[in-house]
Amino acid sequence: QVQLQESGPGLVTPSQTLSLICTVTGGSINSDGFLWTWIRQHPGKDLEWIGYIFSSGGAYHNPSLKSRLAISVDTSRNQFSLNLNSVTAADTAIYYCARLHCSNSCSQGGGFDIWGQGTLVTVSS
Amino acid sequence: EIVLTQSPATLSLSPGERATLSCRASQSVSSYLAWYQQKPGQAPRLLIYDASNRATGIPARFSGSGSGTDFTLTISNLEPEDFGVYYCQQRSVWVTFGGGTKVGIK
Questions:
Q1: In this complex, which of B87, B92, B99 lies closest to A108 when CB atoms are compared?
Q2: Which of B30, B13, B11, B20 has the alpha carbon at shortest distance from B69?
Q3: Hey, is B81 helix, strand or coil?
Q4: CB contact (8 A) between residue B46 and residue A111
Q5: CA-CA distance, A114 to B64, in Å (whole number)?
Q6: Does residue B85 sit in helix, strand or coil?
Q7: Which of A49, A112, A114 is most worth mutating to test chain B (most B CB atoms within 10 A of its CB)?
Q8: Is A113 within 8 Å of B50 when comparing Cβ atoms?
Q9: CA separation for the pair B26, B78 (Å, rounded)
């Protein structure tokens, strides 16, 4: 049974870089038909897609975050990671990693079928 | 950006009743729409993908319909564990989520 687990600092200083890792257990990140995803949720508020990546390394970013964002994958460790630079208080949120299960193709559709438990990241000095 | 508008914002129902949740897209998303349930302190759980396909392990009382810009999630015969916040999400152009409908106990 595939499980995802986020790890990283819970407190980040303004203007610094937020870095999180998602570890995949119970299955290989190299499996076909999945996109490895970061999603965040401001406390009590809406869900926001950050971006996702294929195990081959091709990544797609939310255009609103693209200039500050890097998503990478390490297949040898069965992990993928998020780096968001120049953070402000507006980046305070619960950060989830999730697996997108592609349906007919990975270009559209499907659903986020497995989620990590989420990790709260607070941006504050 | 495709905006998803969910209605109503809040729904108060009793166990055994039927819930009908709506999601409207600002432009066509074809059938590339999913539904999730979220309970306090938990990650969202996938219920429906591609408008009408139930995810693995989801009970048959959950059903999805619609295409283009108008979608519906129906929960027939509400169970006590069905209360929570429900979100729709599109993956036609990038990914966006709706603002949620809270289904509460009447």
A1: B92
A2: B30
A3: helix
A4: yes
A5: 20
A6: strand
A7: A112
A8: no
A9: 29
The bridge status of strand A59-61 relative to strand A47-53 is antiparallel
Hey, what amino acid is at A1?
Answer: Q
Which of A101, A109, A112 comes nearest B32 by C-beta?
Answer: A109
Hey, what are B17's tokens? 């009743």
Q: Do B43 and A96 touch (CB under 8 A)?
A: yes
- Which chain B positions have a beta carbon within 8 Å of A63's beta carbon? 94
CA distance A53 to A31: 13
Contact between B34 and A47 using a beta-carbon 8 Å cutoff: no
Q: Summarize pLDDT for B45-90 with one digit per residue, the tens.
A: 999 999 999 999 999 999 999 999 999 999 999 999 999 999 999 9
Per-residue pLDDT tens digits for A32-84 = 899 999 999 998 789 999 999 999 889 999 999 989 999 999 999 999 999 99
